[in-house]
Amino acid sequence: MSIKVIDLYCGLGGWTTGLLENNIEVTGYDIVDFSDKYPSKFVKADLLTYNNFDNCDIIVASPPCTDFTKSSFPKTWRVVKDYPPDIPSAMKLFNRVYEIVDIVKPVYYLIENVRGAQKYVGKAKFHIGSRYFWGTFPNFTVTNKEDIYGKSYVAPSKDRPAIRAKIPLSISRAFAKTIIERFKQYETGD
Ligand SMILES: C[S@@+](CC[C@H](N)C(=O)[O-])C[C@H]1O[C@@H](n2cnc3c(N)ncnc32)[C@H](O)[C@@H]1O
Description:
- 37% of the residues lie in helices and 17% in strands.
- It has eight helices and seven strands; from the N terminus they run βαβββαααβαββααα.
- The protein has helices at residues 14-21, 66-71, 78-82, 87-104, 118-121, 146-149, 160-165, 169-188; strands at residues 4-8, 25-30, 41-44, 58-61, 108-113, 126-128, 131-135.
- A seven-stranded mixed sheet has the order 3-2-1-4-5-7-6, with helices on both faces.
- Helix 1 packs across helix 8 (169-188).
- The longest helix has 20 residues, at 169-188.
- The radius of gyration is 17 Å and the shape is globular.
- The structure holds S-adenosylmethionine (SAM).
- S-adenosylmethionine (SAM) binds at residues 9-15, 30-32, 46-48, 62, 64-65, 93, 162, 165-167.
């Protein structure tokens, strides 16, 4: 069975890592050049304008969440006063996933973001910890949540934000296993 996934806003490849482990083929797209650190085929692209996607079975996407997160902070906080959230830009990046889904027409798609996004993009299907999910994918569960709730220190570096944004492996593994089960059911007609 060969399953192909497009990982939009892939960053360092949190989704991709769990999918690759389960022999799923993944191509990642990001505006920042992560080609030396991303673990699969990588395309550097501004997803607001890029349209040249290959066919795939599934799209996963983690559009930037910083502005949605900031919009739920108290307005008195200095970070909000000095750098107010840009919700129209955040929504553009989020809603662009729906446009790409319309172009590529995958079997399933999943968008991941934060709780604060719900006010602007509608209620999520479900969430695991602080990760909220929208889309048409089959629900999945995570049993070992150590990497979701465990506090992990990330040392200051240029990559710190990308490391902190990375989807925990327990989530991408659980998603990959559920997808494989579902595609097996299609093959056997169960
Ligand atoms: C929340 S992070 C993704 C984290 C990733 N899913 C992971 O597990 O490592 C959002 C990503 O969106 C990328 N990004 C922001 N604007 C973009 C754009 N216009 N086109 C493509 N990627 C963009 C950022 O560079 C960042 O890597």
